[in-house]
Amino acid sequence: MEATVVKHTGSHYLLTVLPEWALFPAVLRGKMRQKGSSATNPVAVGDCVEFTLPEGLQPGQMPDTENPAVITEILPRRNYIIRRSTNLSRQSHIIASNVDMAFIIVTINFPEVKLPFLDRLLVTCEVYGVPVTIVLNKSDLYGPEHRERVAAFHEIYEGAGYPVMDVSVSEGTGIGALREACSGKVCLFSGASGVGKSSLIKALDPALNPRTGEISQSHLQGKHTTTFYEMYRLASGGYIIDTPGIRGFGLVYLEKEEIALYFPEMLKVSRDCRFTPCTHTHEPGCAVKAAVEDGIISYERYSSYLGMLEEEQKYR
Ligand code: GDP
Ligand code: ZN
Predict the structure, then answer these.
(1) What pTM value is reported for the model?
(2) What is the residue with the minimal CA distance to atom 9 of ligand 1?
(3) Burial level of 53, CB count in 10 A (0-12/13-18/19+)?
(4) What does the pLDDT look like over 247-282, one tens digit per residue?
(5) How far is the CA of 97 from the centre of ligand 1 (A)?
(6) Which domains does the chain show, CATH number per domain?
């Protein structure tokens, strides 16, 4: 039988057979723990798994912690998002798998979004094949002095191909549209702390109360903690995986020549570059640089790209 992993408590996993939401505990079959993977967690939230029921279970009876189900196989992942503790560390944690849409929450102010940070998250999602919608929260706080920056933000990111939704938890603006966008999907919520992720989740479904436990940094250092990522069900349909923590995710290893592949608007024009591969920095006849000069590619995105090029070089 197949089920989806919605939570890892430390001693066991909680599974449900979607779209039903009837959670039951399961453990890993012993030898699966040994399987080679650099991730600290062999099974991630969002994983589809094969399981068997414990022996002696009566019809209609659910497995419980004394008699948990047994996970026998992890089915191939459609995609997944990994978080590393540092750029140099080998250790990684799979935050979530089989994600239909990542919602990256940002604010123009309170706190001010750092575009290079956002662009790194976007590159990560592109690398892992997860579609993104950007949610611009706290629109109630933006006065006339922010209007230009909000318009510029829309232009930069919609121009790059990402939908941008204006939302205000405080005023309820855009919450219905966001609810609709989440419907029927497994959604990852991410963004810097303070942008309103937990407020948004509560606004989408008042019955939910995320953030019962923060992800401890020490977990990524290999110590044992009992807080993990978790999937929630929205009453209106759809599922949310919250990613608390300051950095969320966003560190990926890429070769210099690879980075531009994950800026969709650059990828599109780069086939017209005179040289292949082209780093889109100093090469003559570079179509990307021409597109930046013509305003087809935003200068902000291009400078994030240059920043990433430089940073990747630092670690080589
Ligand atoms: P998280 O760290 O991303 O989970 O952010 P929180 O949900 O804890 O929100 C951080 C702060 O922003 C809290 O004080 C919220 O009340 C506030 N906040 C969240 N959404 C909005 C909004 O739409 N407008 C305003 N003015 N404040 C908001
Ligand atoms: Zn080029």
Answers:
(1) 0.90
(2) 196
(3) middle
(4) 556 667 788 889 999 999 999 999 999 999 999 999
(5) 27
(6) 2-76 (2.40.50.140), 81-242 (3.40.50.300), 256-314 (1.10.40.50)
